[in-house]
Structure formats: structure tokens, C-alpha cells
Amino acid sequence: APQKSQEGTCKKTKVAILGGGVAGITAAQTLSNASVHDFAILEYRDTIGGRAWHKPFGKDKDGKPYIIEMGANWVQGLGNPGGPQNPIWVMAQEYGLKTHYSNYDNVSTYNQHGYSDYSDLLDAYEEAYSIASQRAGEILTQNLQDQTAKSGLALAGWNPKPHDMEAQAVDWWSWDFEDAYSPLESSLVFGCAGDNLTSNYFSDHDNFVLDQRGFNHIVKKQASSFLRENDPRLHLNTEVTNITYSDNGVTVYNKDGSCVEADYAICTFSLGVLQNDAVQFSPELPVWKQEAIQKFTMGTYTKIFFQFNETFWPEDTQYHLYADPVQRGWYPIWQSLSTPGFLPDSNIIFVTVTNEFAYRAERQSDEQTKKEAMEVLRKMFPEKDIPEPTAFMYPRWTSEPWSYGSYSNWPPSTSLEMHQNLRANTGRLWFAGEATSPTFFGFLHGAYFEGQDAGRQIAAIMHHHCVNANSTKLRECGPRKHYETLHGTSPYSDYTTLNGWAFSSFIDTNTD
Ligand SMILES: Cc1cc2nc3c(=O)[nH]c(=O)nc-3n(C[C@H](O)[C@H](O)[C@H](O)COP(=O)(O)OP(=O)(O)OC[C@H]3O[C@@H](n4cnc5c(N)ncnc54)[C@H](O)[C@@H]3O)c2cc1C
Q: Which of 165, 356, 454, 459 has its CA 20 to 30 A from that of 363?
């Protein structure tokens, strides 16, 4: 049970911002820009940036460790000249973040016998994907029944046989590598809409972040535009354990016994944190909210890093795709950092695994994971005499109590209305973050837009006026809508800012 609030013992503020990731910091910045300066940011860790999280790894020729990203690594969908720009890319440019173009066409394919050219399968996938994606658009606009991405792709001509492991590897690289979930576990409609929104509305260019200050450098810079050094409004090392909410205010209790009483709160904790009951809510969250929290899925995406004393792989190749003869998703994609434009001469390569294979790696020892992955490398490059790595490391995302997983995904048979229940406020408690973005879930820019939106809405309510009054005739003030009863699909007329759908998934700004 929550501690009883003893009158006058809690710190008082207008807006409590729970979490100092991109959503929380952007919400605070937005409030600040709207002249709401009385807020408090409560953050579990000793730094801001959340899932934009790095660690030192290995060493360079001077013995200094490299900084590598455990979490977010790309700015995805940069934007085209004259077109809409990804706000993360805008900040990356403004703050001089070091990035390099990620070329997904620069991929070599392998199987258990070494190099094997099955790149024609990549083209076959692409062809089917564009058909499936159009079909997804029809389903969305005509309010039809959603499908799994797997069935959508199969109907469009991409139907990898269970034992065709090269096709399975291509399937993994083309879908799971971004969504963390397989096409069978993903919504066709929202998987395709999400992909269109980032790679067409912005652009199909992604840049990989190599900045030795870490990706969260831009979040720190963003924060420094409205927070002073040692600003008393930023509370690091503060773990929220209970959130008591009503139509009149929110009281937040922390593990260290402190508490904050606010007129409004914005909870930006990950879907994984919400799903794992890491925080208690009083009263219990309403059923429509609990259903939404448990319906959407939290994926795990694990990068396993190796440093060697040489670069024995072709250093000009960015991606190496491995098809295991037995298991789909078995140490499938190897990314070289020891490549011009990245961290040349670092002799660092990493392999990414997702979900089941990520959980497995978390449960077993580092030694076991290293052994399995090294066997794969030796199969990919049979002609090389591959030494043991000099450094080895990987994060355990589902065990991190401040994240419980990597990023969210939409399973099949969801709807925009169901998702809106994830976004909707319960009394004075608001929700924002990567997972509450229907258009950009899973991305840093999703967290950014949702933090901005919650900040704007709350500032508008506090100032008794509406935001964006010119851009839409819809009423955007006041509490967010939620749906007590769900009907399985959402009519196209639902696709408005009222349900968080502020961008069109039918715009393609790419010229090629
Ligand atoms: C492995 C991985 C790879 C990714 N790759 C990319 C990528 O390449 N490109 C991209 O755009 N996105 C990527 N993402 C997604 C991106 O990192 C997230 O979308 C984004 O960082 C989410 O921001 P947020 O503010 O919503 O949540 P978070 O960053 O999770 O912020 C929430 C904050 O709340 C804090 N918190 C949690 N619980 C408590 C508590 N009880 N008390 C107090 N504080 C608490 C956390 O410490 C955290 O700082 C990746 C994520 C991961 C994990």
C-alpha cells in the first residue's frame, strides 16, 4: 500500500514528469516554452536520455575505451530538403552529433558453409513488401480487418518455406531486424503504416550514431536549453514506486521515501515498465487502460559486441547476414564498426538478436553466448583463422528495471482506438513515450512527438486555451479521449490528432 501522504511533506509542483528519456525531456522543454516553469523531472538513473544509453567498450590504440550504444543507434528517417524533418535529426545536426549513413544495400549473405549469394531473395522480399504495404493502406482506409504481416506478405508473394533457411534469414532481416518481432507477431496495417511514416514521410535514409559522447549527448544539449546546471527541478537517482492519481491531481511516491504532489503528471515509463507492474497505481488503472498496456508488445533487441585484434571480415561491408541451417534468428546480422566512416580500425563487430534469442542470451552466461556466436563467425568465414575476441559485451534489456525490454510493437488485431487507450490520460495522470505514438512507435522521434504533445496539451489546459487551433477544426483541448468499448477496427475518420494520428502515412517524400 502507498504511504499515506502526510500533509505538507511532499514537494509541490505543477507538473511532475516521470522519466528523463526523450519523451520526458521534450515534455519539460515544451512546458518551459509555454511558460510553465514549475515542474519536476523524476528519473530512476543517474543520467538523462533513457533508452539512448551507451557504455564504454574495448579500447582504441591509446588504450581508451570506445563509447558504444546499448540502445537506440540510428536516427531513422532523416527527412528530405524542403520536406518534413525528423526532430531527432534536427537536434543531431544542431548539436553536431557524429553519424554515418547506414547503407542497407551494403549487405553480404552467408550460410553455414560461408559466403553464399542469396541477395536475389532480398529483391523478392522488397517487391512483395510494396504490394503488401499498399494492401495495408487499403485495409486502413476502408476499415477492414487487419492481418498478420506474415499473411499480408504471403498474399503479396513472399511466403518463405519453413525449411528454406536463406529465405528465413532474409525474412528476419527485412522484418524482425526493425520490429524485433516476426511478421507473424506483427500487425500488417500498423507495421506498414509505421514503416511508411518514418521512411517515406521523413525519408528512407537512416544514419548510424558513432558519437563518442554518446547518442544522449543531444538529449543533454536539449535539456541544457531550459535547465540550469544542477537544476533543482531534475531529480536523478529517483525511483518512482507509486502513483496516486485523481481528477484533481497526482501524488508520486519514490523509493527513497520522498514524494511529489503535482497538479498534473506525465508518465513516460516504457511499456515494459508498465507491463511488469514495476510501479503501483492508486487507484488501480481502469480496465480499458490495463487492457491496452497488456495488448501491445515490448520487444527485445540485443546487440552483442566483439572486439578483435584484427578486422578479419571485409571492412567495406556494413552488414553480414547469416542463415543458420536450423534456427531462424540464430546470430543473424553482423554489423561492422571497423569500417570507413564508422569506427575505422576499431576491430569491433556486433551481432543483433531479438526476442527469444535475446531472452536466451540474457539467461545464459556471457561465456556461452560468446561461444555460440564465435561458432557462427567461424562458419561465415571458414577460410579465416579467427582469434578469440579481446573484448565482449552485451546488455540484458528485459532485466533492466527501468525499461524491461527495448521498444514496443503492434501485434495483429489491434486498432487505433485500442492504441488510443494507451495514450489516454486517467484523471490528471497523462502518458507519453515511444509506445504511445501510433505513428512512430519504437523510435526516438515517436518519444519526442508524444512528449511534446503531452506538454502542449497540459500547458493549454493550464492556460485555458487550445493548441493548434488553426491547423485543425478538431477540439484538441481537454482530456484525451478513450474508448470504453472496442470494436476491433477503427474507421478512417478516427485517424486524426484526437487519436494521436498527426501525420499521414500516405506521403512519400523520397524522390528515388
Ligand atoms: C536496443 C534498442 C535499440 C533501439 N534502436 C533505435 C534506433 O536505432 N532508432 C530509434 O529511433 N529508436 C531506437 N530505439 C527506441 C528508442 O530508444 C526509444 O523509442 C526511446 O528512447 C524511448 O524514449 P522514451 O522517453 O519514450 O522512454 P525511455 O527512454 O525509456 O525514458 C523513460 C525514462 O523513465 C525512467 N524510468 C523508468 N522507470 C522509472 C521509475 N520507476 N522511476 C523513475 N524513472 C523511471 C527510465 O530510466 C527512462 O530514463 C531503440 C531502443 C532500444 C532499447
A: 165
Residue 219 has pLDDT above 80, yes or no: yes
Please tell me the distance between residue 23's alpha carbon and the centre of ligand 1 in angstroms: 9
Q: How far apart are CA 161 and CA 227, in angstroms?
A: 55
CB 73 within 8 A of CB 208: yes
Which atom of ligand 1 sits closest to the CA of residue 444?
A: 11
If you measure from the C-alpha of residue 52 to the centroid of ligand 1, how many angstroms do you get, rounded to a whole number? 6
DSSP secondary structure letter of residue 173: I
Fold of the CATH domain 11-52+216-295+405-499: FAD/NAD(P)-binding domain (3.50.50)
Alpha carbons 113 and 204: distance in angstroms, whole number: 33
* Percentage with pLDDT > 70 across the chain: 96
Q: Which CATH number fits domain 59-83+91-210+301-399: 3.20.20.140, 3.90.660.10, 3.50.30.30, 2.40.50.140?
A: 3.90.660.10
Return the residue matching grid coordinates 565482449: 392
CA of 222 to the centre of ligand 1 (A): 16
**Ligand 1 centroid from CA 381, angstroms:** 35
User: Strand 280-282 vs strand 240-245: parallel, antiparallel, or unpaired?
Assistant: parallel
For residue 26, which phi and psi values (nearest 5 degrees)? -70, -35
ipTM surpasses 0.95: yes
What's the full length of the chain, in residues?
512
- Ligand 1 binding pocket (C-beta < 6 A) is 19-24, 42-45, 50-52, 71-74, 76, 238-240, 268-270, 273, 278-279, 301, 397, 402-403, 406-407, 433-434, 442-444, 446-447
Please determine, for residue 26, whether its predicted confidence score (pLDDT) is greater than 90. yes
Task: Specify the residue with its C-alpha closest to ligand 1, atom 35.
Answer: 19
Which of 78, 407, 422, when mutated, tests ligand 1's pocket best, judged by the most ligand atoms within 8 Å of its CB? 407
Q: Whose CA is nearest to atom 27 of ligand 1?
A: 21
Please report where in the chains the cell 531462424 appears, as a residue: 328
pLDDT tier at 473, thresholds 50, 70, 90? very low
User: Any known ligand binding at 240?
Assistant: yes
* Extents of the domains making up the chain: 11-52+216-295+405-499, 59-83+91-210+301-399
